[in-house]
């Protein structure tokens, strides 16, 4: 689940950026790699929001040469090419650029050719393919690699507009993967009988970053004129967001103010509730989130209960808690099991229940609650998560590339 923040673009160094002056069939030699390649196939734009892939891959970049391949962009160009940008920690992000009229079938073939050409130009060495979307199997199934990893952070087949082919491609990916990670307990339960090597790594937390919100920080200009109390949400606003619930709660308590941060995707912004006490502030930088959370009174997670939220494990849950904010959430299973049953997050289904939960939290002392919050958060950092993942990857990769033992010749 996303953090609802945007990122500045990195530096650009394009492979074949000038179109006709580059022949994509001729490998362009790069400097010899000092690290094994980790090629990440992602359905998410690197510069869209800062979430699980970014948290893990910036840490992976210390041990691996990380290349993230995004979905293609349809733009005017004389010939398809890979646009490559260097972003955080030296990670490269590759975006296939294809002509506007390119069909889905042709886009698959073009992507395979572009990635194959890039791999050919790279000196030989261990290769890890890391998948966030099974859709990428369509153009990578025949590309050579030493290890395949599936980091199953969301049940993409349940999302609005998902391709019917995702289910079959996931079966293929599960058959190819040596390791499967899941982004939460619900996903783990759904996948653990479908693969022999599945490991649950729920949403982790950068305590140092979000813990800044417990300190005195400058108040953002676009927040300063919003009256208190302030109930805030940050994240992508899409089919997983219960806009009707927000409207009902805002209507019940017009003296409370609701601050919504994040991009709106896959739904019509005109359908979102508008009221004097609902404030849509749009996307914010990940680095700036603590300044907003420091000036909120409570966190609100109004997730709809539908197929797209059945398996989510919202990253924002521990982020709210690290910021020292009490939280009210709808009964998303992973939130209920990990936080609700422990009394760390209040669970509410209806608008009246949300109002009652908020009123309870406003009266409740926070010191004892924060002690329990911090005890839980101390066990779930992104550093710890990546260290555990890395240990599995290194061991499995070593076994995959180890030469087969030589057998004695029969006499």
Overall mean pLDDT stands at 89
Number of individual domains: 2
**Percentage beta strand:** 15-25%
Q: Could you list the spans in which at least 5 consecutive residues all have pLDDT below 50?
A: 1-29
CATH architecture level-2 label of the largest domain? 3-Layer(aba) Sandwich
* Terminal Cα span: 61 Å
- Number of beta strands: 18
Q: Using only CA atoms, what is the Rg?
A: 23 Å
CATH class of the largest domain: Alpha Beta
Number of helices: 14
* CATH level 3 topology of the largest domain: Rossmann fold
Portion of residues within helices: 25-40%
Report the structural category. Answer: alpha/beta
The profile of the biggest β sheet is:
10 strands, mixed
The rough form would be described as globular
Description of the molecule:
With 411 residues, the protein is an alpha/beta fold. Helices cover 32% and strands 18% of the residues. The protein is built from 14 helices and 18 strands. Strands 2, 3, 4, 5, 6, 7, 8, 9, 10 and 11 form a 10-stranded mixed β-sheet that branches. The protein has a 6-stranded parallel β-sheet with strand order 14-13-12-16-17-18, sandwiched between helices. Strands 1-15 form a two-stranded parallel ribbon. The relative contact order is 0.13.
Helices and strands in order:
Blueprint: E1 5-6, E2 11-12, E3 37-41, H1 52-60, E4 65-69, E5 73-74, E6 81-86, E7 92-98, H2 104-121, E8 127-131, H3 137-140, E9 147-152, H4 166-176, E10 179-182, H5 185-191, E11 198-200, H6 207-210, H7 221-224, E12 230-234, H8 243-252, E13 257-261, E14 278-282, E15 284-285, H9 289-293, E16 298-301, H10 316-322, E17 327-329, H11 333-340, E18 346-347, H12 351-363, H13 367-377, H14 382-401
Parallel strand pairs: 1-15, 3-4, 3-8, 4-7, 5-7, 8-9, 9-10, 10-11, 12-13, 12-16, 13-14, 16-17, 17-18
Antiparallel strand pairs: 2-6, 6-7
Helix pairs in contact: 1-14, 8-12
């Amino acid at each position: 689940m996303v953090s609802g923040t945007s990122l500045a673009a990195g530096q650009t160094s394009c492979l074949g950026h000038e179109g006709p002056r580059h022949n994509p069939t001729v490998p362009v030699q790069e400097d010899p790699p000092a690290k094994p390649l980790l090629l990440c196939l992602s359905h998410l734009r690197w510069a869209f929001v800062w979430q699980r892939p970014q948290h893990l891959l910036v840490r992976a970049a210390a041990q691996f040469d990380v290349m993230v391949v995004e979905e293609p962009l349809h733009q005017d160009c004389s010939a398809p090419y890979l646009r490559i940008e260097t972003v955080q920690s030296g990670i490269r992000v590759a975006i296939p650029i294809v002509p506007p009229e390119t069909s889905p079938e042709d886009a698959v073939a073009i992507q395979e050719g572009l990635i194959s050409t890039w791999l050919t130009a790279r000196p030989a060495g261990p290769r890890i393919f890391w998948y966030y979307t099974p859709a990428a199997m369509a153009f990578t199934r025949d590309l050579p690699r030493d290890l395949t990893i599936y980091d199953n952070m969301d049940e993409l087949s349940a999302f609005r507009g998902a391709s019917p082919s995702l289910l079959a491609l996931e079966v293929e990916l599960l058959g190819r993967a040596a390791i499967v990670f899941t982004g939460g307990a619900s996903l783990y339960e759904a996948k653990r009988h479908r693969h022999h090597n599945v490991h649950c790594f729920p949403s982790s937390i950068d305590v140092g970053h979000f813990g800044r919100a417990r300190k005195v920080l400058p108040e953002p200009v676009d927040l300063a004129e919003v009256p208190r109390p302030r109930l805030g949400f940050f994240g992508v606003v899409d089919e997983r967001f219960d806009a009707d619930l927000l409207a009902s709660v805002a209507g019940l308590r017009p003296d409370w103010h609701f601050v919504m941060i994040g991009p709106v995707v896959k739904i019509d912004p005109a359908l979102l509730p508008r009221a004097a006490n609902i404030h849509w502030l749009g996307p914010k930088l990940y680095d700036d989130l603590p300044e907003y959370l420091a000036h909120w009174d409570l966190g609100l997670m109004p997730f709809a209960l539908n197929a797209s939220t059945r398996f989510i494990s919202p990253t924002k849950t521990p982020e709210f808690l690290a910021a020292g904010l009490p939280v009210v959430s709808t009964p998303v299973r992973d939130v209920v099991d990990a936080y609700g049953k422990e009394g760390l997050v209040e669970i509410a289904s209806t608008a009246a229940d949300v109002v009652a939960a908020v009123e309870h939290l406003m009266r409740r002392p926070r010191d004892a609650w924060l002690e329990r919050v911090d005890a839980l958060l101390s066990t779930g950092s992104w550093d710890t998560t990546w260290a555990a993942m890395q240990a599995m990857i290194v061991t499995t990769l070593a076994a995959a590339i180890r030469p087969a033992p030589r057998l004695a010749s029969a006499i």
